[in-house]
């Protein structure tokens, strides 16, 4: 099985990758992208993604994902973000799972998996992923908030209160 290799210490963390926000990259016209960097197609893809051009970014990333052997963790995270921005949450979750398998101690990878599974309709899988993110990073307010949302959909009022209260305790201005 192909696995993502760990990144070089820095994690690409898209700020919108939590269920409480609607700040996904907007579609529509954007300023022209800068010329491609000679150092990395990933940087170019990231710029396109930030401009709301997820399909174009994904086109640059797909060949990197399809290479035999290890794939960079940044490529996995960015490709999953692009797929999610395009509404393909099942494929995004598949890429997130590669990253989680390669980096099981990466709370952002688990949180992203939870996000994509939630939007794909797999509430049980999403809850497991968010719980794993919390085990690795207990102070992640967004994971508690997302678990509260899942509990609400499942009708578990006590879990809704528990997780929402913890999210607000960790981040008082939580929206």
Written overview of the protein:
- With 175 residues, the chain is mostly helical.
- The protein is built from eight helices and two strands; from the N terminus they run E-H-H-E-H-H-H-H-H-H.
Name some characteristics of this structure:
single chain, 175 residues, mainly alpha, 8 helices, 2 strands, 2% strand, elongated, disordered N terminus
| Uncertain stretches | 1-39
Per the principal axes of the C-alpha atoms, what is the gross shape? elongated
Could you tell me the strand content as a percent range?
under 5%
The topology string of helices and strands comes to: EHHEHHHHHH
Spell out the blueprint of helices and strands.
Blueprint: E1 4-5, H1 41-50, H2 54-65, E2 71-72, H3 73-85, H4 89-102, H5 107-120, H6 123-136, H7 141-154, H8 157-170
Helix pairs in contact: 1-2, 1-3, 2-3, 3-4, 4-5, 5-6, 6-7, 7-8
Q: TL;DR?
A:
The chain is an all-alpha fold and 175 residues long. It has a domain at 4-122: Alpha Horseshoe (Serine Threonine Protein Phosphatase 5, Tetratricopeptide repeat). 60% of the residues lie in helices and 2% in strands.
